[in-house]
Each structure stands twice: as structure tokens, then as C-alpha cells.
């Protein structure tokens, strides 16, 4: 079920650095090297597969941007927050 904008903004308080824009939540993660970002993307891919919920990923030299939305609901759902939280844990495990 799609969350309201107010619900999304409230939930974002628990995810530092994540923002809400254009019907999705997103975060840019800086990395010192391209290979560090690529390794993070691979960890995110494993999480996404396990959850069967996949973010849009922008891999650039020095950063990775994750963009999460639930296309079938045309907005942000609990699935997106679960994915975001697990990605934060994956970063912490580095």
C-alpha cells in the first residue's frame, strides 16, 4: 500500500541522508574509489534479490545513488523503507 507524503516524510526521519522527491526516496552515497562504490552496489543487489524489490541505481565515479519506489503502487511503500534500511546496514558492514 502506498504511503502518504506525510507518512513518507515522517519515516525518513529514521533514515539520515535519504530524501523524498518525485514519488521516490533516494540517497547519494559517496565513495573514495569507483571499486568501493561497485562493491556496495553488489551488496545492494544481493539485498534487493532477497527482498524481491529492486532500486534504481546510479553508479558514478565517487558515488552511488539509490532511488526507491514501488512501481506497482505508483509511490513509496513499506518495501522501499525496508530496502533502504537494509542498504544502510550493508554500508555499515563495510
From TrEMBL:
Keyword Lyase applies: yes
SUPFAM superfamilies: PCD-like
Reactions accelerated catalytically: (4aS,6R)-4a-hydroxy-L-erythro-5,6,7,8-tetrahydrobiopterin = (6R)-L-erythro-6,7-dihydrobiopterin + H2O
Domain of life: Bacteria
Entry-linked Gene3D superfamilies: Transcriptional coactivator/pterin dehydratase
InterPro entries named among the record's database cross-references: PCD_sf (IPR036428), Pterin_deHydtase (IPR001533)
GO biological process: tetrahydrobiopterin biosynthetic process
Keywords: Lyase
Recorded GO MF terms: 4-alpha-hydroxytetrahydrobiopterin dehydratase activity
Family to which the UniProt record says this protein belongs: Belongs to the pterin-4-alpha-carbinolamine dehydratase family.
The protein's name in its UniProt record: Putative pterin-4-alpha-carbinolamine dehydratase
Organism (species): Caldinitratiruptor microaerophilus
Taxon lineage: Bacteria, Bacillati, Bacillota, Clostridia, Eubacteriales
Amino acid at each position: 500500500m502506498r504511503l502518504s507524503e506525510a507518512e513518507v516524510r515522517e519515516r525518513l526521519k529514521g533514515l539520515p541522508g535519504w530524501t523524498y522527491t518525485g514519488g521516490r526516496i533516494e540517497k547519494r552515497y559517496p565513495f573514495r574509489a569507483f571499486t568501493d562504490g561497485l562493491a556496495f552496489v553488489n551488496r545492494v543487489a544481493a539485498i534487493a534479490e532477497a527482498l524481491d524489490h529492486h532500486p534504481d541505481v546510479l553508479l558514478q565515479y565517487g558515488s552511488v545513488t539509490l532511488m526507491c519506489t514501488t512501481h506497482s503502487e505508483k509511490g513509496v511503500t513499506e518495501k522501499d523503507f525496508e530496502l533502504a534500511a537494509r542498504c544502510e546496514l550493508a554500508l555499515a558492514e563495510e
